[in-house]
Amino acid sequence: MIPMVLFVTIFASLSLITSQPDTSATYDEKLQEGIEAFYNTEWEVAENLFQELMEEDEKDPQPHFFSSMMPFWEYFFIEQNEELADEFLNRSEKAVNLSEQKLDSSPDDTTMVLLLSGLHGYRSLVAAGESNYRVAIRSGMTGFSYTRKLLSLDTDRPDARIGRGMFYYMLGSVPSELKWATNIAGLKGDIEQGFEELKIAAESDSYVSNDAIMLLMYLYNKEERYEEALSYAEELTERLPKNIIFKFKKAEILEKIGNKDQARELFAEIAKSNHQRLSTLIKKSKEKAEQLTDLTQNY
Predict the structure, then answer these.
(1) Mean pLDDT on 236-253
(2) CA atoms in the 13 A half-sphere facing the CB of 60
(3) Which pLDDT does position 15 carry in this prediction?
(4) Which H or E run contains 169?
(5) DSSP assignment, residue 205?
(6) 31: helix, strand or coil
(7) Tens digits of residue pLDDT in 114-161
């Protein structure tokens, strides 16, 4: 059975928390339903469920984490703008604070270590995307400090490799004029090291392989290595066929490598979707489908 989640580095551990005194079968069922809706890009349903859960248990970081992933995915995959970056950073800050409180009261809580490692890693990527490299480095270092805790448990853990891969890639992406900051801090890492760590996780039998595949698709596309990006995009759309964000990314990559007919078909398919939160994606898909149709007709 293929996992429903891509950020399973975190979710796989979160889903094990079934014995907490403040959770019930109803709470856990709502959380699972919200997560499934999230990964199927049914975000209106997911948001309503996560809001209900936040009210039921104000100390649980899980619904805050998944709620923050909506603007993160929009920023990461659809459109990088300051508004989405701020929305993600604000939402994720609540998840970070709640996770730190839980970890303070229970220092050996591996689940919270995983959660904080991922959250700070994603925050570093967004900060880097906004060219705020000082924040990106600080968040990356904080996230990697949690990753080191995982490494101390098992250096071959695929989930730890994902955190390490993201950190190495971020270091390799820092502009040359800011390399002095990483050198002073004694930080080492480059883009290819990041890819190698992610590939090992992607090729593993672990439940986190989907997470690594998603990151590889995005980062190879960012590096304009489109054939490699496409292979990972195809894997994702096979595993999560309802997810229109991954369909959109696959269509974009297909267009870049010259397969305009297949790209047009995918854009047209997405344009027929009805997702209020993802209206920007649907509008972009419609425009792209029309553009590619015009190009074909003119040709």
Answers:
(1) 93
(2) 24
(3) 40
(4) helix 158-173
(5) S
(6) helix
(7) 778 778 878 887 888 888 777 777 777 777 777 666 656 555 777 777
Q: What is the arithmetic mean of pLDDT over 83-104? A: 92
| Rounded-to-integer distance, Cα 155 and Cα 147, Å | 10
Which tokens in the block code for residue 280? Answer: 């920007």
Mention every residue, 6+ apart, whose C-beta is less than 8 A from residue 116.
96, 99, 100, 103, 142, 143, 146
Tokens of 108: 């050996």
Confidence at residue 48, expressed as pLDDT on a 0 to 100 scale: 95
Tokens 């709620």 found at: 67
- Regarding pTM above 0.70, the answer is yes
Chain centroid to Cα 215, Å, comes to 7
Give dist(CA 57, CA 126) in Å, integer.
28
Q: What are phi and psi of 156, to 5 degrees?
A: -100, 5
Distance CA 143, CA 116 (A): 7
Exposed (0-12), middle (13-18) or buried (19+): which is 57, by Cβ within 10 Å? middle
Q: How many CB atoms lie within 10 A of CB 33?
A: 13
Whole-angstrom distance, CA of residue 124 vs CA of residue 129: 9
Q: Which residue did the predictor score with more confidence, 243 or 10?
A: 243
Name which of 35, 43, 45, 52 is nearest 74 in CA terms: 43
